[in-house]
Amino acid sequence: MKLENLLKPIFAAVLLPAAFVASAVDYDFEENGIYYGFYETKKECFVTYNEDDKYEGDIVIP
User: Fold this and answer.
1) In terms of Cα–Cα distance, which of 9, 51, 50 is closest to 27?
2) Which residues pair with 47 in a beta bridge?
3) What pLDDT tens digit does each residue of the chain (62 aa) get?
4) I want to staple 38 with a disulfide (CB 3.0 to 4.6 A). Which of 19, 28, 34, 48 is the partner?
5) For residue 36, what are the contacts with CB-CB under 8 A and spacing of at least 6?
6) What gap in Å lies between CA 47 and CA 61, rounded to an integer?
7) Cα separation of 7 and 13, whole Å?
């Protein structure tokens, strides 16, 4: 068996999860244009951002 054929599944197992993590969003949910993250262990939310949608002007956080 060729070495190339042995390495393909290994590379797929390593690179696929890495690609998924790289494409993960920086927030857990969006409400009224404000992006929030969520600390599961603390059961708390925090304001964060979305790379594609920047905040502008005065922001009111409820």
Assistant:
1) 50
2) 36
3) 565 666 666 655 655 555 444 445 578 999 988 899 999 899 999 998 888 888 888 888 77
4) 28
5) 27, 28, 29, 30, 45, 46, 47, 48
6) 8
7) 10
